[in-house]
């Protein structure tokens, strides 16, 4: 199996080393694992692509490339340039530093890379490591992902439907904010929504008097619907959420039918 890996934390991020190990375990060695990752951190860029300017790409080593672009750019470069003669069978994005559960999924460059893989018709999985008091200051905060990542990917690949019409499935995996031995198991879960919290800005003045704002995330322990991804992550479970690029609110199509008859 030929695997392309990317991330949004950048080519030198420790989570990418964890993903390399997961991919090598799935592929049976390093020879079929290729990396195309952002040269610089691209957190929060979602499914952005560099449509209006070129993306420089440089080879850093065997099967290892850095691109000055987003995770989606990296997937496009990997599929249509680096691996154009032998496209990948699987795209793995991550392992992200921090969770991409609930509304974070909509901002995530990690998810953006997996989404682009799915749009290219390739199986794609995004993996993220939730941070919390039990693991944030551990010797290896990615311990849960490192210990359970390969098996989780295998289970998804075994269950992934073979014949898919329309928008292809991709998968959002979040490892709980605990050490590996404290992981309770793996559950399918819908995307949640953290109540009464959202991204905000914090304004600051520079020494020259210019006004800037920093983007701030919301409370990552805010409650979500029972059984949703963030809810079970905080309870110690790995969440697996199947997703599609189709943003249509199908329930609203029915509810609004009479208004547009």
UniProtKB/TrEMBL annotation:
Q: Does the keyword Metal-binding apply?
A: yes
Q: Which family does it belong to?
A: Belongs to the SurE nucleotidase family.
Q: What does this protein do?
A: Nucleotidase that shows phosphatase activity on nucleoside 5'-monophosphates.
Q: Which residues bind a divalent metal cation?
A: 8-9, 43, 96
The chain positions of domain Survival protein SurE-like phosphatase/nucleotidase read 3-195
The entry lists its GO molecular-function terms as: 3'-nucleotidase activity
**What NCBIfam families does the database record attribute to this sequence?**
PRK00346.1-4, PRK13931.1, surE
Establish whether keyword Transmembrane is in the entry. no
Per UniProt, what is the name of the gene that codes for the protein in this document?
surE
Q: How is the cofactor bound?
A: Binds 1 divalent metal cation per subunit.
What is the recorded name of this protein? 5'-nucleotidase SurE
Q: Which cofactor does it need?
A: a divalent metal cation
Q: What is its EC number?
A: 3.1.3.5
The record ties this protein, via Pfam families, to: SurE
Subcellular compartments: Cytoplasm
Which keywords annotate this record? Cytoplasm, Hydrolase, Metal-binding, Nucleotide-binding
Q: Give the top-rank taxon of the lineage listed in the UniProt record for this protein.
A: Bacteria
Q: Which reaction does it catalyse?
A: a ribonucleoside 5'-phosphate + H2O = a ribonucleoside + phosphate
């Amino acid at each position: 199996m030929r695997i392309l890996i990317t991330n949004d934390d950048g080519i030198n991020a420790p989570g990418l080393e964890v993903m390399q190990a997961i991919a090598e375990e799935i592929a049976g060695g390093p020879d079929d694992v290729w990396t195309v990752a952002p040269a610089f951190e691209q957190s929060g860029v979602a499914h952005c692509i560099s449509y209006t300017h070129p993306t420089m790409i440089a080879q850093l080593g065997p099967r290892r490339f850095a691109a000055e672009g987003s995770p989606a750019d990296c997937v496009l470069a990997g599929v249509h340039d680096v691996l154009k003669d032998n496209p990948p069978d699987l795209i793995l994005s991550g392992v992200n530093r921090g969770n991409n559960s609930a509304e974070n999924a909509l901002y995530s460059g990690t998810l953006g890379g997996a989404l682009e893989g799915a749009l290219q018709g390739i199986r794609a999985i995004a993996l993220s490591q939730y941070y919390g008091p039990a693991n944030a200051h551990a010797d290896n905060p990615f311990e849960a992902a490192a210990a359970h990542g390969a098996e989780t990917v295998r289970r998804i690949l075994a269950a992934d439907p073979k014949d898919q019409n329309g928008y292809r499935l991709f998968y959002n995996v979040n490892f709980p904010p605990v050490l590996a031995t404290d992981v309770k198991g793996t559950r399918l879960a819908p995307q949640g929504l953290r109540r009464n919290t959202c991204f905000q800005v914090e304004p600051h003045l520079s020494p020259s008097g210019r006004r800037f704002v920093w983007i701030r995330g919301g409370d990552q322990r805010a409650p979500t619907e029972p059984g949703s991804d963030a809810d079970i992550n905080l309870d110690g479970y790995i969440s697996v959420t199947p997703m599609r690029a189709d943003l249509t609110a199908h329930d609203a199509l029915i509810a609004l039918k009479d208004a547009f008859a």
